[in-house]
Structures are given as C-alpha cells and as structure tokens.
UniProtKB/TrEMBL annotation:
Keyword Transcription regulation: no
Source organism of this protein record: Vespula pensylvanica (Western yellow jacket)
InterPro entries: F-box-like_dom_sf, F-box_dom
Protein name: F-box domain-containing protein
Coiled-coil regions listed: 252-279
Lineage top rank: taxon: Eukaryota
Domain F-box as annotated: residue spans: 9-39
Lineage per the UniProt record: Eukaryota, Metazoa, Ecdysozoa, Arthropoda, Hexapoda
Keywords from the UniProt entry: Coiled coil
Record flagged with keyword Coiled coil: yes
C-alpha cells in the first residue's frame, strides 16, 4: 500500500518536471526510474514558439535558446529550430550544443521574410523512444572535389547520387516489403543547390523501393545548418545544402496534404482538411508538420487555426519557407516543378501519429 502511495505521489510531482529534470530524476534509484519511464511514455512531441517582440525582453540570444530548450517535455532525439526574419541576424548562427543532451540531432532552418510582424522562433522536440527510429543524413557539395558529401556516412557520392548504394543499404530495412514499419521523410533543402540534391534523393528513393509507400514532406529555405554530436564528432552549426530525416516505426501512421493556391480555392482547401479530419485516426501521440510558402497569401496563415479547430490537442509546427512539397511517390513532373520554383504557391502539411 505504501509503495503505491509513493508511486502516485512521485507521478504527480514528475508530471511538472521538464525533460532534463525528468531524465535526472530517473537516475536516482530503481523506483524513481520506473515512475520516470511511465511519465515519459505519457509524453509526446512538443513545440515552443517565441515571437521576436517577446525576445526583446531577454538580455541575449543564449537566454532565449536556453529558456526554449528547458521547455522540452522529454529527452529529444531530434530538434528542429526555425526562424523567419527580415534580415539575417548573427545570433541565429550560434550553436545550440551546450544546452542539448548528447546524441541529439539539431537542425536549424531560416527563411528571410518580408514581414516584420511574423518574425518567430519555432523549436520542435521529437522524443527519443524505443518504438520510433530516427535517421538523419546531412548533405553538402564537396568544397574541392566534384560530388556530394554525406556527413553521417563519411562518404562522397557523385553529383547525381548514382553511386549511393551505401545510403540504400542503410535505409532499406525501413522499406523492406516484409517490414511492418511505416516510414516518412522530412526533406529540408537550401535554395538552389539543396533542391537539386533533395530531388535527386527522391528519385532514388522511388527507384530503390518502387513497391513501398514513401511519404514525403519538406520545404526550401534560405539557410540550413546542423549541430550534431551523434556520430562521435561534435559538429557545431555546420552549414548544409540538404538534410534528410527518416522517421519510422511499427505503430505509426502518416497522412500528407498539399494545398496549392493556384489551383485550390478556399472551398477546396476547406474540403481537403475536412476529408483529412474524417480519415485520420489519432493514436496516443501526434504532431503536425506544416510548411507554408512565403509567397502564399495571408489566407494560408489561417491554416494553423483551422488545424487547431480540427485537432485541438495536437501540436502544430509551422515552418515558413520559399516553397513546399508533400505527398506519396511524387511524380517526376512535380519534382521538376519544385526544382524550378513553379510550385512556390504550395503549402503542405504532414500528420504523424504513433502509440
């Protein structure tokens, strides 16, 4: 009886701890570890947003980052920081590593916005949990050799990724026909060279796994960088042309929606979102990734409010970008259109839900 009382007392206390304090509490003793693990299973992905006007109350950028990182609910395996600013600020280029736990991949994306009112900093934290696997791949044009270098694989590929068999070997377990995993890609491309790398990757994904459903969501941004201590080397604010994030799990489901202002009127957009609401079956934890094109009208700003109306308990991570893309097995014409910026009026969202 006393043991049960202690459990529920600890559980009620642990409910108010942030991710870092909860992780520390789990190391005190075996009984605390049990309570902490149960509390971790209760928590899912989280998102924190700060407006630039709010930031002015802080003394410096480090204070802002520290405060936002302290908000994460569970030890993250993946962090995505996003800024949209009217001009490139030097403080956006600083490192996050000293505030984050070891083995956490952090990607920062920035889109130059023409609107001062919408200047925000968005932080998304995806938890480290056993039933969800996250693989990350950072690509850059090699500085003195013709080719594309992958930081995680420590490998140089040719410019069209035609010799990327090593990459295929690493990811094929998630796309094997006998595998019960559901997988999705978040693809982030820096404007110009990054889009070329990104869509070469897409072409190879479909070529390698023609019978497997491949869900894609992503955007084109002005600046892209990573902080990464996962692969035995601490890479701080390393600039990237393209970042590919693979998320897979056995009890996970994915839905993607593409909204095109050129072809979809407000009624069409509303119908698409209503249809999604009807077919989506949310599991224990969920998150919505939303990539909004900078070139879309202000009507697209209401998407976040509409999604909140349909999914009030699901965190929505909104990224401003120069162009967006989403879907399953995107055809060659669509991919080429994104690469040529013909689809800059497209905004997309991806709903990810898991137990």
């Amino acid at each position: 009886m006393e043991q049960n009382v202690n459990y529920y007392v600890l559980r009620s206390i642990f409910e108010y701890l942030n991710g870092l304090d909860l992780s520390n509490a789990s190391q005190v003793c075996k009984s605390w570890l049990e309570v902490a693990e149960d509390e971790k299973r209760r928590r899912g992905p989280s998102c924190v947003i700060r407006n630039r006007r709010e930031m002015k109350s802080y003394k410096n950028w480090d204070d802002i980052k520290k405060e936002m990182i302290e908000c994460f609910a569970i030890k993250p395996a993946l962090c995505m920081f996003s800024t949209n600013s009217a001009k490139k600020d030097s403080h956006l280029q600083k490192c996050h590593c000293k505030y984050l736990p070891h083995n956490c991949y952090t990607v920062s994306l920035d889109t130059e916005s023409s609107s001062l009112e919408n200047e925000n900093l968005v932080a998304m934290y995806f938890p480290k949990i056993p039933n969800i696997q996250i693989s990350t791949f950072t690509f850059n044009m090699h500085p003195w050799t013709m080719g594309i270098y992958c930081e995680e694989l420590k490998t140089l590929f040719d410019n069209s990724l035609n010799n990327a068999d090593q990459l295929k070997t690493v990811i094929e377990a998630s796309f094997d026909n006998d595998c019960h995993n559901t997988s999705c890609w978040i693809l982030l491309c820096k404007i110009y060279y990054g889009t070329s790398i990104g869509f070469d990757l897409l072409e190879h994904f479909y070529k390698w796994f023609p019978r497997k459903r491949i869900s894609i969501c992503g955007g084109i941004v002005n600046h892209l960088s990573v902080c990464n201590s996962v692969h035995n080397s601490r890479v701080c604010k390393n600039m990237a042309e393209c970042v590919a994030i693979l998320i897979s799990g056995t009890k996970m489901q994915i839905w993607t929606v593409s909204l095109d202002e050129m072809n979809d009127n407000n009624e069409d957009i509303e119908d698409k979102l209503k249809n999604i609401k009807e077919i989506v079956k949310l599991k224990k934890h969920s998150i919505i990734f939303m990539f909004i094109s900078e070139y879309c009208s202000s009507d697209m700003d209401n998407l976040e409010l509409i999604m909140f109306e349909y999914f009030p308990r699901v965190p929505v991570v909104k990224y401003l970008c120069n162009g967006a893309f989403a879907g399953e097995n995107l055809n060659e014409k669509y991919v080429q259109g994104c690469n040529d910026f013909e689809n800059i009026n497209t905004s997309v969202l991806m709903i990810l839900t898991y137990d």
